[in-house]
């Protein structure tokens, strides 16, 4: 098992991180039992498009309401998932609406903490060089 897969399988390390490139995460998660959900945001994507892409990537149930509260509800449920944990890979966030990405990060951070308490891996990994997020390959200080 690679060090990256070990990290992504450890619920005590749950959180919101960044990586320079997505391929290492994709390779690490392959055939691991973790569910990899990929979201690619485009320049100008706002709340509605962000939520729609997340709902599709995570196969949300039909009752998903398409708002931030409903996102929190679905992320705290995941009862439909048979995976041992979840890795949400978000690409292109730098071009999306900054306020919406900020709200999304807050929700993902809260979700990661929620699942950490329940010992289920949950990682949100943004691609790019955002210095506000810790690197996935490094320990938090």
Provide a descriptive summary of the structure in words.
Helix content is 37%, strand content 18%. By secondary structure, the protein is of the alpha/beta class. The protein has one domain: Rossmann fold (3-Layer(aba) Sandwich), CATH 3.40.50.300. The protein has a 4-stranded parallel beta sheet, with helices on both faces. Strand 3 (85-91), helix 5 (98-117) and strand 4 (122-127) form a beta-alpha-beta unit. The protein is globular. The relative contact order is 0.26.
Top keywords for this entry?
single chain; 18% strand; 5 helices; four-stranded parallel beta sheet; Rossmann fold; alpha/beta; 141 residues; globular
Topology:
Blueprint: H1 3-8, E1 15-19, H2 23-29, E2 34-40, H3 47-57, H4 68-75, E3 85-91, H5 98-117, E4 122-127
Parallel strand pairs: 1-4, 2-3, 3-4
Helix pairs in contact: 4-5
How would you sum up this structure in a few lines?
With 141 residues, the chain is α/β, with parallel strands linked by helices. 37% of the residues lie in helices and 18% in strands.
Helix run count = 5
CATH architecture: 3-Layer(aba) Sandwich
Main β-sheet description:
4 strands, parallel
The arrangement of helices and strands along the chain is: HEHEHHEHE
């Amino acid at each position: 098992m690679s060090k990256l897969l070990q990290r992504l399988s450890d619920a005590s390390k749950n959180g919101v991180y960044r990586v320079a490139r997505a391929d290492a995460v994709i390779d690490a998660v392959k055939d691991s039992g973790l569910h990899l959900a990929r979201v690619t945001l485009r320049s100008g994507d706002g709340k509605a498009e962000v939520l729609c892409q997340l709902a599709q990537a995570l196969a949300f149930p039909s009752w998903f309401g398409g708002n931030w509260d409903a996102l929190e509800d679905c992320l705290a449920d995941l009862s439909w998932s048979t995976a041992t944990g979840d890795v949400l890979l978000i690409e292109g966030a730098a071009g999306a609406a900054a306020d919406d990405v900020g709200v999304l990060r807050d929700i993902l951070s809260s979700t990661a903490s929620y699942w950490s308490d329940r010992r289920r891996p949950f990682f949100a990994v943004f691609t790019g060089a955002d210095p506000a997020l810790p690197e996935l390959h490094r320990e938090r200080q």
